[in-house]
Amino acid sequence: MKFNAVETQKNIETKLHNSSDVKSRTVQFFEKTIVLMYIADITDNVLFNQTIIAPIISYNVEPQGDIVSELESKVLTNHEVVEYSSEQEALDDMLSGKTIVIVDGAEKILGIDVEKITTRPVMEPPTSVVVKGPREGFTESIKYNLALIRKRVRTDDLVVNIMDIGELTKTQVGIVYFDSVADKAIVKDIEKKLKKIQIDGVLDAHYLISYLQRNPKSMFKQIGDVEKPDILVGKMLEGRIGILVDGSPIVLTVPFVLIEDLQNSDDYYSQPIRVGFIRVLRLLGVILAVVLPGVYVALEIYHYKILPTEFLVTIRNTTQGIPFSPFVEVFFLVVLFEILYEANLRMPQYFGMAMSIVGALILGETTVNAGLVSPPAVMIVALSGITFYIIPSQAAQFSLLRLAAVVIGACLGLYGMLIFCVFILSYLSSFDSYKSAYLAPTAPYIESDQQDNFKRDLIKNMKKRPRSIANNRHNDDRRSEDEN
Amino acid sequence: MKINYRQLSILVFMSFIALKCLALPGLLYSESGNMSWLVTLVLMFVDFIFALLIIDLMKKSNAKNILEFMQQCLGPVLPRIFMAVLVVKYALVVANISKGLEFFVVENFYSSLNWIVFVLPLIILVGFMLYKGIRNIARVSEMVCWAVLLGCVYIAVKSIMSVDVLNFLPFFKDGVAPLFKSGYQHMSWFGSSTFLLMLFGKVDFSNEKKMKLVQYSFLAIALVMLIHFVFYGLFDITSPTHSFCISDISQYSSGQSSIDELSWLVVSLWVTAQAVQLALFSYAMIQAIKFTFNIKTNVFPILFVLIYIFAWSFIGEMTVRLEQVFLTQFSSILTIFTAYVIPIILYIGYAVERRKNKKIRGGEKCKS
Amino acid sequence: MQKLKSIFSPRKIIIILLIIVGIMTVPGLNAPAMSETEAIVTLLCMDKQEDKIVMSATVLSPGPDNVANYQVFTGSGDTLSNAVEAVSLSIGKEMGFAQCEVMALGENLCTEGVMQTLDFMTRTKKVGRNAYLVSFAGDINDFSESMSNLNKEKSLSLEKILSFDKRYVLTKNCNIENFYIGYFNDLSLGIMPRLEIKNSESDNAIEVASGGQTSGDQAEAESGQKEKKYFLNDGSLAVFKKGKHVLDVDSEMVKKMNFFVNNSQQGALTIENVNDDLYENANVIVDIVRKKNEIGVRFENDTPIFRNRMEVVVFVEQVLGDQPKENLLKRNNDFLTPTLLEHIKEKIQSDMQDCIDFCKTNSVDLIDAYKHFSKLTSKKFDEYLKTHTKENFLDDITFEFDLHVSNEY
Fold it and tell me: Is B251 on the interface with C (CB under 8 A)?
């Protein structure tokens, strides 16, 4: 089929409902009419002029054969020129930033990449701040993000597989992994799941999570998310697979095990002894965050006998005259904390400081002074609130668990709290994420993986890939013997 | 859903310490006095030997489950009868653990606690673990066991300086007869290895580290003996008046104030360990019920076991004292039969069957 | 079957059970703190007066600025339950005994027998068996009021005083558990510290009360009095046989008894009239810094021998009387002269002999001889007991003392 340049231009314009940002330019190339079509706002004008217009206009050697091939091989100086044999294909690519070149009477349409990438610069992500270590974070552009990965991985082993998802948005979603390391069955499984997705649009990586996780209704996180290329590459080296989504600075990783959230990229850039201490501290922080208010309520309502007399004196003195039951008191504070947190998060930054002062100082101080809540309750809820953010990525889940723990503590006391804790352990033990046990390498205990569990070995001693993460077993050694 | 060898060893550890650190030391003392520790030591060692024997059979067999294995060795009828007997044994252990846990929780944590409020959360937890299967129980055990071990060692070590070694003397003052008598009478607290029968075909021996089982079994024996040593060393003649060994030691060791905070943590850990042990023996009971009545689904046996735990809590509340059931001759004979006789019969049956097969194979070779 | 399965789906069952648990436990959401609904008893005193049990409970109540405030409530009844009920009524709350750190028993009750009381309090009322047990002489109201004031005014609690005693002057850790162990043993012997509330000041008494504020019926009646009360803890002991008070041991004798107990400290010894190159008719105060006992028992020709091997480390603390000024230039180890060493040995040996004589005279085995013989030489001791009773078995025992005294450097 031969394309009539003017007709094709009209067809495309009609298909795009004559949108005003669709621009076209007609140029004469010897005897042929060429129509260049592009979308103004996503086209880089300089590139457009330098790599398309200028070469075409200034070319003065009469073409000998097929004009399209001549343009492709001799005229256009752009790095990427694609051929389309259908109008629809060309239109689809035009929408993602390509300029299409329609030569009157030619059998192919050309697509030239002059996309203007509009994104913020590479910055340190706010949730993965490190003291020492790389500060580059992913941006909203999949191209930039892939570039950040490629920059760190100069090997032919890296596989990038991009597909479009979303009936209307046609968002680019990329799967990245190391061919020799990642488990192929998992890669196929992910590809299959992604291809099956039928959705209007994918605006962020989190849209895909419910399609990928095994227990979609569970409140616990089953898919990892990273915001920094060094972390992603680290995870990929262990056999994980990354899923990038255009428009999202978050890269999803599978398989995911809970211990990942206790690990921080900082850990790999500091002394192993300190890392062990910090990780145990993080675990302790999480436990405190979830159970402390519940235990306090339980102690107050049912088990004051456990408290040493001196401590009991303090509690009795500070809680006397409080009009509410211990549950109401703590529940009120927990909810208040959540409201303050939510308000602080959404508020413009310049209000933030004022909000903190109002929340922490004025509200806290006055409620205690007014005798509505007791100082120990405020202290415990505040402590629990702060310790949440040792693991910010799980804070939402933990805050719900904390509320549940407060209710259980009030209804059933310490016994209920214990049953609750074992139940949570049992529940977490019960689901696996892509062939990996959620609580691995603790339950099931994997001896070789203790190199990077609650403690971390010296990097030079971490010779084996973790067995908790499904990967190609034959490739267990991280380096060859002579290097060891 | 198979468990690995390490998890199997940890389950053995958990089953070995189950029931041994609450009422048992006090009960044993009434019969065998200051030599009670020897009864526990010997019977735990016997349990260990039988655990090795059952695991050996498990490794050798290629049967999918214990029923298939029994049928290979003993024919079609006898295994069903054995299974029914095992159901009764497991039922007794489940009742013992659940009732012991209830007394322990109520005595140590509450002034009073409605039995329904106690039993329903426990049922939810155990039901969930049973629904998720043995792998789930094994994984939770893996996490709980170290905490329990460290906690118990903490409690024991804290009190060890107050132990009066003279309490253990003189040895065998009344001879060995009282030891045999009390061992026989309290047999229901032992025979922990019986649960292993229900793990046939559920253990992956591919990464077997042979010493693991021995290590964990000896660790369990050492832990129980340490607790018993401290208990008798502290309480001597008043031992029979103490029903909760673990918490009573921690209360004694905390000086003049009530139990200190860390000891409460340990007491709490013991509650979690008991809950896991309850799930383990409930799992064994479910398997035995399935094999006895040829039930394919898990849901109804689980429901039955949960109703059974509920009923025990109710009955215990009304009239029957659990010790009365456990101190009967019936329960001792039942334990001896299930824990020791059945494995021996199985071993002999397996050996005879193998010899037969060898002969047949040898005959076929000669013919050919 | 499939239908049945769907009816009994695990999710449904869990939800139903959760709803039931929720319904049953929902009152917990509005429950007040238990420490407000129960009176927290920290000290419980009991005695018998005119065939009635009198009980006095020191109750913890909120005070300003993290300072504990204690109130005393007293009640009486024909039985222990009635007495508890009477005190509870006067407080207006159920009594919680979990924090009860000391149980004090009056003289009358001790003479009649304490085991039923202890059994009631530990088994029914859940008083911890690690609580201290003391006997007291004097009026119960005076005693409990004094204890309350001791806490309030001197920042001292009886529990703290007794806990210090345990290290210094008492032979044993006198808690309920140990009293039980003593009671259930063959000799049925128990001890507890003996405290006194006196109206007149003595050497080491502490002023604790001058008719301070109290609550409860009897205590209230006495609130007008302004007479000073003195609390005396001199380390003396009350000895019980079969749960009944039979004997008091004064503090001097208790110190002597400590020579037979391994982990007790002794305090100071006064060695009188030391004369040698260094000392001139001096009284020397020697502190026993450490001591280690090894009790050994054996039979020789059917005669039981009790051997106390003791290593004592001493430090010369003070020399009374006029001494040459060169003495002040001596080094520590020069103070322990051979003569002084001999004197110390003699003193300790005579103290131990006094203690044994006391035990023999009163037929109380406070040095655990029975335990050692019955545990370490049980067969021969059983034979020995055929010719002796549990009352007089000490009479024919030979006591050997092997004493090693050295200086603390």
Answer: yes
| B131:C10 CB<8 A | yes
Answer yes or no: are the C-beta atoms of A236 and A178 closer than 8 Å: yes
Instruction: Tell which residue, B239, B287, B221, has the closest CA to residue B35.
Output: B239
Q: Maximum Cα–Cα distance for chain A, whole Å?
A: 101
Strands C69-77 and A22-29: unpaired
Chain A residues touching residue B6 (CB < 8 angstroms): 444-445
φ, ψ of residue C71 to 5 degrees: the values are: -125, 145
- CA–CA dist B305, B95 (Å, integer): 10
If phi > 0 it is left, if psi is from -120 to 50 it is alpha, else beta; for residue C150 that is alpha
- Give the right CATH number for C253-407 from 3.10.180.10, 3.30.300.210, 3.30.1390.10, 3.30.70.100: 3.30.300.210
Distance CA B13, CA B148 (A): 11
Distances from the Cα of A423 to the Cα of B121, B176, B271, angstroms: 10, 45, 13
Domain assignments of chain B as residue spans, ordered by start:
3-367
Lookup result for tokens 């689901």: A431
For residue B224, the SS3 value is: helix
Q: Which amino acid is at B1?
A: M
- Read off the pLDDT of residues C68-124 as tens digits, 9 standing for 90 and up: 778 889 999 999 999 999 999 999 988 988 888 889 999 999 999 999 999 999 988
Rounded to 5 degrees, φ, ψ at B92 are -65, -45
Substitution target in A306, A411, A423, A427 with the highest count of C β-carbons within 10 Å is A411
For residue C355, count CB atoms less than 10 angstroms from its CB and return exposed for 0-12, middle for 13-18, buried for 19 or more: buried
Interface membership of B160 toward C (CB under 8 Å): no
Q: Does the CA dihedral B201-B204-B209-B211 come out positive or negative?
A: negative
Residues of C whose CB is below 8 A from B116: 20, 24
Task: Give the whole-angstrom CA distance, residue B153 versus residue B226.
Answer: 8
> A393-418: string of b/e by CB count within 10 Å (b at 16+)?
bbbebbbebbbebbbbbbbbbbbbbb
Indicate the pTM of the whole model: 0.88
DSSP letter for each residue of B15-71:
HHHTTTTTTHHHHHHHHHGGGHHHHHHHHHHHHHHHHHHHHHHHHH---SSHHHHHH
Please give the ipTM for the structure prediction: 0.92
* Fold held by B3-367: Amino acid/polyamine transporter I (1.20.1740)
CB atoms C31 and A325 under 8 Å: yes
Integer Cα distance of B330 and B333 in angstroms: 5
Is B166 an interface residue toward C (CB < 8 Å)? yes
- How do the domains of chain A map onto residue ranges? 5-113, 142-256, 270-430
Q: Do the Cβ atoms of A300 and C33 come within 8 Å?
A: yes
What is the least distance, in Å, from the CA of B172 to any CA of chain A? Answer: 40
Query: In which residue are the tokens 């040459």 written?
Result: C324
Closest CB from C26, C31, C99 relative to A312:
C99
Residues of B with Cβ-Cβ distance to A424 under 8 angstroms: none
Whole-angstrom distance, CA of residue B12 vs CA of residue B138: 10
What digits encode the pLDDT tens for the residues B279-336?
999 999 999 999 999 998 888 899 999 999 998 888 765 555 555 666 677 889 999 9
A414 in reach of chain C (CB within 8 A):
no
Q: How many CB atoms lie within 10 A of CB C198?
A: 15
C152 lies within 8 A of chain A by CB: no
In terms of Cα–Cα distance, which of C294, C405, C289, C288 is closest to C342? C405
Which residues on neighbouring strands pair with residue C48, listed in sequence order?
C53
H-type helices in A238-302, by residue range?
A: 272-301
